[in-house]
Each structure stands twice: as C-alpha cells, then as structure tokens.
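pasting for the record
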Amino acid sequence: MSREDNQHFNISQKVVLIRNNKCLLMEIAKYPGLWELPGGHVSKGETNTEALKREVKEELDFDHYIDHGVIDYEIWYHGPDRYPICGIVSLIENKKDDIKMSDEHLQIKWVAEEELDIYDFLWPAAKRMVSKGFEKYNSLNK
C-alpha cells in the first residue's frame, strides 16, 4: 500500500455545554487521564449538522438542545502517523436533561473556566475552545 492510499483526514464535531458556569468534560476510556468535549467524527456522507445531532444523542442522550453555532475550530495531527483532524466546536444549550454518559468515557466532570489548567486534554486547543465557549455563553446570558 502506498503512502497516498494510507492517508486520511477526519472532521470531528464537538460541543461545549455549560450549566451553572461550569463546562462538561469527559474522561476518555481509551486514554485514561485525558479529557475531551462531547462529540465525535463526522461520518462519510453526513453533514456537520447531522453529525452534531447524532453525537449529542450518542454521548449525552439529548434529543433536544439549542445550537448557538460554531465557536472555534482547529486542525491538529494525531497518532503515530500524524493524520490530520479538523475539530469544529459548537456551543449548545440544554438545561433540563440528565447526562447519560456513553461507554466511550470513564467519567464526566463539570468544570469552572479557572479549573481548566488542571486537566490534560487530547485536543491541544481544547482549553482555548472551552474558553471561547465561556465567552459566548457569558455574552448570551448578560
């Protein structure tokens, strides 16, 4: 197999969910000690909107939420092959439903913005993305 046959590019749709001035983080079962935002890869033939809805259902068990739009994005390189991932992060709102964590995660935590530095994230730009989520959240709730 040639190098070209082995290359791929992933798009990952993630969300920032904030309640009571705290953001939801999830510890990754595959990488204990590393944290991420809810969401996942956009499947072939799927739009970002479809992926967002599917991932929110799979990871949080929400059928209904308000999407406040994209707050940040980043391309980074993951794994030993350093394949590119474009991460797109949206701010969503859901104040009512309980979180039903998927088996892809070990635990969830609600974290204040000033606590972000004590967490290690899989995505290099995750702290910046969460901070942008807090900015948007605060501007919406003035």
